Amino acid sequence: MNPVQHPEPPEGGVSTAVPDPLHAIQERVHACIQCGTCTGSCPNAFAMDYTPRAMWRLVLMGEKETLFNSRTFLLCSACYYCTLRCPRGLPLTETMEELKQIAARENHPVHKKSVLFYRNFLESVRRHGRVREMEFMTLYFLSLKNPFTPLQFTPLGLRLMGKGKVGIQVPSKGQRRLEALFRKAEELEEQE
Ligand code: SF4
Ligand code: SF4
């Protein structure tokens, strides 16, 4: 395993290298003692390719490629169990969230679908103040640019429509009543 190298500033000058966002994550969880309490507490660990404990180990070892090819942090549902129980008091849930944001920013191919899913979900909430399921899925399928993907979901969609759980919805701009809130969140994110 190759620990991430921190960039050295050039002699007599200031480094212009872009800092690796993983360094901040490593510093935040460096006190991990690999006790496994996070894994034992996580309700989603059974579905993860690396358990939370193993994922924190990958972070500490700077195994960036393996880390961002993993879906572990994507499956975190922010229940905060691990954070509450970690004997070192590490901010694990927030750090899981940060890994999702780095994966989205750096456009890692493994996470592309999930990122589009999140974005279109939020776009529907931004337009209407709540998610409109059919509109959201329409926007999501369009963003995938793959005409075959919707076909996989057709039987499920028809079953849900048959039970009255979803209905036909033409995408619309909505009233955007949450616009100010979304803008503020974007502003805060830019300041980080
Ligand atoms: S519970 Fe905390 S100390 Fe224990 S393995 Fe998880 S992150 Fe590390
Ligand atoms: S916050 Fe995420 S990683 Fe932690 S226990 Fe809950 S689902 Fe698992």
Task: Note down, in words, how this protein is organized.
By secondary structure, this protein is mostly helical. The protein folds into two domains: 86 residues, Alpha-helical ferredoxin (Fumarate Reductase Iron-sulfur Protein, Chain B, domain 2), CATH 1.10.1060.10; 63 residues, no CATH class. It is built from ten helices and no strands. Helix 1 runs antiparallel to helix 6 and helix 7 packs antiparallel against helix 8. The longest helix is centred in the middle third of the chain and has 17 residues. The protein starts with 20 loop residues before the first helix and ends with a helix. 16% of the residues are buried. The N terminus is likely disordered. One iron/sulfur cluster (SF4) binds next to helix 2 and helix 3.
CATH homologous superfamily heading of the largest domain: Alpha-helical ferredoxin
Q: Which stretches are poorly predicted, pLDDT < 50 over at least 5 residues?
A: 1-10
Largest sheet: none
Total tally of structural domains: 2
Give me the Rg, rounded: 20 Å
What's the shape?
Answer: globular
Give the mean pLDDT: 87
Can you give the helix content as a percent range?
A: 40-55%
End-to-end gap: 30 Å
Structural class: mainly alpha
Number of strands: 0
The name CATH uses for the topology of the largest domain is: Fumarate Reductase Iron-sulfur Protein, Chain B, domain 2
Q: What is bound: which ligands?
A: iron/sulfur cluster
How large is the share of residues in beta strands? under 5%
Order of helices and strands: HHHHHHHHHH
